[in-house]
Design a protein that fits this description.
The complex is a heterodimer of chains A (285) and B (274). Chain A is mainly alpha-helical. Chain A has twelve helices and two strands, in the order H-E-E-H-H-H-H-H-H-H-H-H-H-H. Chain A has a two-stranded antiparallel sheet with strand order 1-2. In chain B, helix 1 crosses helix 12, helix 3 packs across helix 12 and helix 7 crosses helix 9. The chains are: A mainly alpha (285), B mainly alpha (274). Chains A and B meet through helix 1, helix 3, helix 4, helix 5 and helix 6 of A and helix 1, helix 4, helix 5, helix 6 and helix 7 of B.
Chain lengths: 285, 274
């Protein structure tokens, strides 16, 4: 009886999450592109061989890792700072929390379009500021070596609130008596952070890291609207590459293979993070 | 012992969050000439509402996208709750081992980068004839939201006193009555948190809407914004872009102001308790 209540939800979750992975596994063994009229024809391991020797795939993998690693680190740092700030007594707590939360709640594409204007060369406010200070306008979105940094900026702006609120929930579980005890010992603010707050916050930091890592590795909306993967494919993520293979080059077989490659990457890195935690908990005991 | 934060730090945090948005507001009210003037134009001239007129009178008008997003959001939220509430209850009744397994799987699904799923879901939509059917989006959206929704509701169920169900059963209430009269009222806060999170997710979802919907009058807000970004319908477009950004942000500003408590509790409970 109680299984019957559970079944419809599990069925839908299965169709949405599990079916695609099975379908990709099957498709990745087939040629299904405009050349075959999108009719799947078995082609052995040709898609996988192509993946292994596809320079663009590996370049996008590195780019995605770079984006995810730097975004994640900055979001954890800034999120911690913001959480500590919000944990202090505030008069307009509700309003401040709403203001901080807003970037997270907006659709990614809306603010990606917004950032295109903020970073516009030469009319955007940042370039106006640079010019006002006597510099010459900078191609924030047209310089292959540095544009990825500004995709990180937009991601950090949007996702830090999530990390901050999660860590704030963690901070609120720390009994104030513990902090008072350390204070009596004469521990300074940095010592209190290092000896008390961070160890007790560790599970929350790990949760935030896991969640943000998986999402950052899957980055798509932001890149597509902010840079379209450019300039010169320098900001192209794996998600965007898989999308282009499917929707622009109409090669479903290879697109499915790229998706599976990406899935393996996410699986590898998130389980790596979990193993790291296990080892670290082991040393504590 | 805890002191209020330094006002400058607080101001910095607020500016970091709000300044990019305020700049969009400012941009949306400037004439194209003022935006591209070689030196920043005088502050008193160059103000206009023309950008809003252009966006609101566009073809299709901008409110259409907001309406589409609201419809999809509403349908997804309803469908998710209709499936998640019984599922959370059913999960709670299972043996401990099965409970743990399902919870773990749901947790993994809730963290999954779902952009990976769009190609197979697009194939399904084509097979079912669901392309360009606005409300059909509610089905994948519900599927994607269910893991978080079930986890949130189950955590709330686990917090209820264990004797409650037995007492209601002894009173002779059947399952439907117990759900409606006893559990639902007690779960109301968790349901509200779940509903607002599902609504926000559906409102903001991009890759699936992008691949399922191609007709302009059926686009949801995120896809419409991306299409505006990719087209050059507007001569010097940034004023109009900014107006669209502002209009697209206003409903969410309202939601966040109204429901920030529910959003925060849902976000943290969903990640921590699952």
């Amino acid at each position: 009886m109680s299984l019957l209540l559970l079944a419809p939800a599990l069925l839908l979750v299965g169709v949405v999450f599990l079916w695609p992975l099975l379908r990709y596994a099957w498709l990745s063994g087939h040629a299904a592109s405009v050349l075959t009229g999108l009719v799947p024809l078995a082609n052995g391991g040709a898609n996988w061989q192509r993946l292994l020797s596809d320079g663009r795939f590996w370049q996008d993998t590195l780019q995605t890792l770079r984006f995810a690693g730097v975004s994640l680190s900055l979001e954890l740092l800034l999120g911690l700072a913001l959480a500590l700030l919000l944990h202090q007594p505030l008069r307009q707590r509700g309003a401040v929390r709403a203001a901080v939360l807003l970037p997270w709640a907006l659709p990614t594409t809306v603010m990606a379009l917004g950032w295109r204007w903020l970073l516009n060369d030469p009319y955007g406010p940042l370039n106006r500021l640079i010019q006002g200070l006597g510099g010459s306008p900078y191609g924030f979105l047209s310089t292959p070596a540095t544009t990825w940094l500004f995709t990180v900026l937009a991601d950090v702006w949007k996702s830090t609130p999530f990390v901050a609120l999660l860590l704030l929930a963690g901070l609120q579980t720390i009994p104030p008596e513990l902090e008072e005890a350390l204070l009596l010992e004469g521990a300074g603010p940095l010592q209190r952070l290092w000896r008390l707050t961070l160890p007790l916050l560790a599970p929350y930091l790990l949760l935030a890291a896991l969640f943000r890592l998986a999402q950052a590795l899957g980055v798509f909306d932001l890149i597509q609207v902010l840079t379209g993967g450019g300039p010169a494919s320098s900001t192209e993520s794996l998600g965007l590459y898989a999308y282009l293979n499917g929707m622009r080059f109409l090669d479903f077989g290879y697109s499915a293979t790229v998706m599976l490659g990406m899935f393996l990457l996410v699986l590898l890195l998130t389980s790596g993070l979990l193993l790291l935690r296990r080892g670290w908990q082991g040393t504590l005991r | 012992m805890r002191r209020p934060p330094h006002p400058l730090l607080l101001l910095g945090a607020l500016l970091w969050s709000l300044l990019p948005l305020l700049w969009q507001l400012l941009t949306s009210l400037r004439t194209p000439e003022a935006l591209v003037a070689p030196t920043p134009a005088a502050w008193l001239s160059g103000w206009t509402l023309a950008n809003y007129r252009q966006v609101l009178l566009g073809q299709p008008p901008f409110w259409r996208y907001l309406l589409n997003s609201a419809l999809v959001g509403g349908a997804s939220t309803g469908l998710t709750l209709a499936l998640a509430i019984p599922a959370a209850y059913g999960l709670q009744q299972q043996g401990l081992r099965l409970q743990r397994l399902i919870t773990l799987l749901l947790l993994a699904a809730a963290k999954f980068p779902y952009v990976l799923l769009f190609l197979a879901l697009l194939e399904l939509a084509r097979a079912l004839g669901w392309g360009n059917q606005l409300l059909a989006l509610a089905v994948p959206y519900a599927g994607l939201s269910l893991p978080l929704a079930v986890l949130l509701l189950r955590a709330a169920l686990a917090d209820l006193p264990p004797d409650l169900e037995d007492a209601a059963r002894l009173e002779g209430l059947n399952l439907g009555q117990r759900l409606r009269r006893v559990l639902l009222p007690l779960l109301a806060p968790a349901i509200a948190s779940t509903a607002i999170l599902v609504f926000l997710f559906s409102w903001n979802e991009y890759p699936i809407a992008l691949t399922w919907i191609s007709r302009a009058e059926l686009l949801t807000l995120p896809t419409a914004m991306a299409r505006i970004a990719g087209s050059s319908v507007y001569a010097v477009p940034y004023g109009a872009y900014a107006a669209a950004t502002v209009l697209g942000s206003l409903p969410l500003l309202a939601l966040v102001l109204l429901f920030q408590r529910q959003i925060v509790s849902g976000l943290t409970q969903g990640s921590v308790r699952g």
